[in-house]
Design brief:
Blueprint lengths: L9 H4 L6 E4 L5 H11 L5 E4 L1 H17 L3 E8 L3 H14 L3 E5 L2 H11 L5 E5 L7 H6 L6 H15 L3 E3 L5 H8 L4 E4 L18 H7 L3 E4 L1 H4 L4 H12 L3
Parallel strand pairs: 1-2, 1-8, 2-3, 3-4, 4-5, 5-6, 6-7, 7-8
Amino acid sequence: MTNAAVDLNVAATDAFDSRLIVALDVPSVAEAEALVARIDNEAVFFKIGYQLAFAGGLSLARDLKASGLKVFLDMKLLDIDNTVAKGVENVMRMGVDMLTLHAYPKAMRAAVAAAKGSDLCLLGVTVLTSMDAGDLAEAGYAMSPEQLVKRRAAQARDAGMGGIVCAAAEAAAVRAIIGPDMAIVTPGIRPAGADHGDQKRVMTPARALSAGASHLVVGRPINAAADPAAAARAIRLEMSQD
């Protein structure tokens, strides 16, 4: 594998369980900083996506890394090979831990070549967890979500990617395709009894880990909670029951 894979034995190496990634899906850096403070070390891994990145979140990513935390930059890159490669090179200089791109073979190969020799874990996004078979059909795909996820997982493996982003429902099938060493990052995680919101393919923390996920991305159940620290703690407790 040419791209950095993630140490899946995180529980043995980290003071806190870094399998939990908290999505900082908030409108401003000030709100993100306040959320990290309120979580109060109940999580050490944070995701920055479009919403926050376009509001100054890239600088926050550097600050979080400087403070010893882990950062997942969820940019879902997709462009011509040269543009993808140059983007990955600049992300490498930021020192973040994970970066997403859409799992198109040419884009993945360009990203892997650009990241060669670095510790950046490149993640291929298969099918968004907000999409179901009807959404794919509307977009012109003849395959089911499960079929498309499997194809892209195999292509990511062959390209030398560090991991896959997929719904927890597909984690077991993906793990069988990519083997034990690549990361499987699953969004759409909802604690038992939580509202699903706009997510269509969801799973509880313990079930997702049992299915083969290595990392769980949790957003609204933590960042919209009255007590984010308590919510993160409860999710880590659920994770320990896998």
